[in-house]
Amino acid sequence: MRVKIDEDQSLGPRKKRFEVPDVIVSEFLEKKLWLQRMKEEKNEDGSGTLSVVYLSDGFEGVIRRDPFEVFVRESGKKGKKVLSLNLNGLFDFEQLRDKKEENEDWEERFRSHTDSRPYGPQSISFDVSFYDADFVYGIPEHATSLALKPTKGPGVEDSEPYRLFNLDVFEYIHDSPFGLYGSIPFMISHGKSRGSSGFFWLNAAEMQIDVLGPGWNDEFSSVLMLPSDQKRVDTLWMSEAGVVDAFFFVGPGPKDVVKQYTSVTGAPALPQLFAVAYHQCRWNYRDEEDVYNVDAKFDEHDIPYDVLWLDIEHTDGKRYFTWDKSLFPNPEEMQKKLAAKGRHMVTIVDPHIKRDDSYFIHKEASQKGYYVKDATGKDFDGWCWPGSSSYLDMVNPEIRSWWADKFSYDKYVGSTPSLYIWNDMNEPSVFNGPEVSMPRDALHYGNVEHRELHNAYGYYFHMATADGLVKRGEGNDRPFVLSRAFFPGSQRYGAVWTGDNSAEWEHLRVSVPMILTLGLTGISFSGADVGGFFGNPDTELLVRWYQLGAYYPFFRAHAHHDTKRREPWLFGERNTDLIKEAIHIRYMLLPYFYTLFREANASGVPVARPLWMEFPADEKTFSNDEAFMVGNSLLVQGIYTQRAKHVSVYLPGDQSWYDMKTGTAYKGGATYKLDASDDSIPAFQRAGTIIPRKDRFRRSSTQMENDPYTLVIALNSSKAAEGELYIDDGKSFQFQKGAYIHRRFTFSDGKLTSSNLAPVTTGHSKFASGCTVERIILLGLSPEPKDRLRRTRIQYGNIDRPGLFRVR
């Protein structure tokens, strides 16, 4: 259900409030709905009339006029509530107005900065209640627990609300409600009795959200509240500007809520296969010789990698789309040498444009009037890496199109088809601005104040960059763009990461709930800097981070230029082997990860999942954010303490789990205290699943393309299992035209069969693979009696043909 509340335009407000464009997907906007006529009914307590409209099977939307409330309930007068807006009467909408008195001061001052606030206060607030919820989750980005802790209420120590305001945060602290680099005002609730529901407010201004603890309003109970035996979690949402454009998602399962949310904001893009592999990054690889040495060392130590990254120092004086010719005199040749091994390169392109009349980007942008303006109407001039800089007004579609053209090979001189892009500092970061960002009274396209769209600025920059790579490849090449800032819809354009973390055990620990929260809010392709961006990790922490990072959806090592070099071979032979083994696990599991990315692309369901997404009735999973699921088949438990001797792992469900390393079976529904070995972290395959692997190690994922598959079959108590494998060309958009293979493997009654999941249609593109399944591993066979499951023989050809595996 979508609810919009704005000022009455017939009353002539001073300006039109900003509504965020280009977030809601066209499929949703263009979908025609047939709604039954709204019906009226008396409220049970006689307090007024309710207007009721049919939503979907089993649910109704209800408006109570006086006192005002909007809610979703199960069908029928006595249907249980699911979600409610303004149950507690906290709705407040500051309307735009003229100053009451000439000397009325609307300005706000922050240190040396003054916000002119020419339109005065225009904030909005309301409460949202989630019924039958045990916990609420979401609203990234914060370095805190997966289950959101109360910020107000009895027993809650001093706490700020959860803040959503994109900022360039230097060495952020963990376990804090302080806002970081991105903002997604989408919250999910979950409880054992009902399941899940979700609430999304499409608004790009600064937002603060309180999670209200039990008993928060006992002393001042609102007259709005009616007696109810339904428990709930109350929240308070506050925004500086904008309109109410709210979406209610009824679930009832956690995957249903995510699917409903991504049906509005778009499903995650399917990345190229290379992007799912391992990335090696540093601020900065110094020059071409450094690049070649790092590349050669990976080969020398038999460690695969797919992407080598260049930070800001590769440019000519921080002018993006350029190269420092003394350090990188032959960039095309450098990229081609990496590409010959199936490897790729990423360079950084940030939104601040150096104010230099000899710089072609600045000269053209200045002439065309493409920069954000300050409050006086002049091009905004802020300070960032290049020094004096201006910022492109990416909310304007014309400017986004102009920017996208800059990625063509003739304009980005020195770029090749194997070069992809990294957008950093796009919150936007302004070193001499208030809170290291852009002044709120800066002006954008359509005379929109920056305060109204701040949280979406990086989103539009990400969008334009991704569109540029699509243009560059003439619509044939899937883009790869990593962005630090994000907003609802960012999942359609590429990956994000959790920003400038530190080489601390606490940051290793908090990376898991941060990545899980991003997945719950649509962004599947995310990760944290392995090893920590700031500081020098001790060897044990670095190894543990690689072991965990191998299961992140986005797997990249990165470090600050003031840190010691930390390539995998610099810590002694034993630690090199441990890091290499962690990276090998990622490459072995690439077929499984890629299949999950396709599932995310088709349904919105994330790659990395909280345990409760797969086990929604198990209360022990609801606040567990030390372990996570990779798809529905793997459970991973990190080790987050130094010199750990043991690690506790909770394995949910009533079926067994198999240790990925040893094959040892553990019964579900129990917590195990396991020895903490230095060579791996605990990871388990769920009984009843089949995982596809590729076990031959190459230099890069590209070189694994024709390698055969291994199927790992983990039998459940019925001696059955199933799993999926998705394959396409790994790089183009042809999969959207049907050029892919999607198989379901089913093991039952001693037979392994393969069936086609791809729709059978005519006129579509075709994709064929010469890969075979060369090996099957069966987990969970009974040692006695010596039955026909003892030996395995494959009577099967290519992976793209339907067939029957006979196991005997």
From TrEMBL:
- Taxonomic lineage from the root: Eukaryota, Viridiplantae, Streptophyta, Embryophyta, Tracheophyta
Pfam families per record: Gal_mutarotas_2, Glyco_hydro_31_2nd, Glyco_hydro_31_3rd
Ranges where the Glycosyl hydrolase family 31 C-terminal domain occurs: 604-691
Q: Where in the cell is it found?
A: Endoplasmic reticulum
What name goes with this protein?
Probable glucan 1,3-alpha-glucosidase
Q: Which family does it belong to?
A: Belongs to the glycosyl hydrolase 31 family.
Keyword check for Hydrolase, yes or no: yes
Q: Does the keyword DNA-binding apply?
A: no
Which GO biological process annotations does it have?
A: carbohydrate metabolic process; N-glycan processing
Q: Which organism is it from?
A: Sesamum angolense
Q: Where is the Glycoside hydrolase family 31 N-terminal domain?
A: 51-210
Source organism's superkingdom?
A: Eukaryota
